[in-house]
Specification:
Rossmann fold, seven-stranded mixed sheet, 9 strands, 30% helix, 15% strand
């Protein structure tokens, strides 16, 4: 890494999982949860690198492209050919070296429940960030990427920490409680996390030490801004 490069460098890690359980429907990453944080970082002058489990173009959750879920950030992304080109060519997660980056951000969508919860490359990467005292952030279902992270003493990182993520009542509202491999709220609590939430679909993000989490799509910009602040 060029030591002359003073601006901070953020890694964003996306899912490569496209099947919504056994429903025959598609899933992937949620556009708003990528777009809003990406532009928070880019507009602040940070360098952003995109990676995904399989590399290349990550699958998009088709529901996140519906009219109801469009925001200024998603509209900006839809018109941004340069960023779409970056998205089509994400790096392979296993090839990423944590020492090249100052922080990591995981956008949600249902995909991460399947391919980022137990992913050894992801777990090792996050543990490297924490060991180097670098912040880690996730929004919505991507908090699942933090479930199996352990600290140097072998304890779950979320234990005793304020955390959030897509809530049981939100999962129920989108009628996927029986489809998802697990309920994120329940699993965070099982690992000793002090799970917090606000009313469904409202913006809420929490920082506890190096750990930053956002509850739902509405929380993606808030989580990104907390990460930005912690890098300042």
């Amino acid at each position: 890494m060029n030591t002359q490069h003073t601006s901070k460098h953020i890694l964003m890690v996306l899912t490569s999982h496209a099947e919504l359980g056994n429903t025959g429907e598609d899933t992937g990453f949620w556009v708003e949860e990528f777009a809003a944080p990406f532009y928070v970082f880019a507009d602040a002058g940070l360098k952003v690198t995109l990676a995904s489990v399989a590399g290349g173009q990550p699958p998009v959750d088709p529901k996140s492209e519906l009219a109801d879920f469009q925001t200024p950030a998603t509209k900006r992304y839809d018109a941004d050919k340069e960023v779409q080109k970056l998205m089509a060519n994400t790096a392979i997660l296993a090839d990423i070296d944590a020492s090249d980056y100052d922080a990591v951000f995981y956008p949600g969508g249902h995909g991460p429940l399947w391919d980022l919860t137990d992913n050894l490359a992801s777990i090792s990467l996050i543990e490297s960030f924490l060991a180097a005292n670098k912040p880690i952030a996730a929004v919505c279902h991507a908090s699942a990427a933090f479930l199996n992270i352990k600290d140097a003493s072998g304890e779950y990182v979320v234990k005793g920490k304020g955390v959030t993520g897509f809530s049981n009542s939100e999962e129920d509202a989108v009628q996927l409680t029986e489809i998802v491999p697990f309920l994120l709220e329940d699993e965070l609590i099982k690992r000793g996390g002090k799970y917090q939430r606000v009313a469904d679909w409202n913006a809420f993000a929490i920082q506890d030490g190096l750990l930053i989490t956002g509850q739902n799509p509405a929380s993606s910009e808030l989580a990104a801004k907390k990460l930005l602040t912690s890098l300042a």
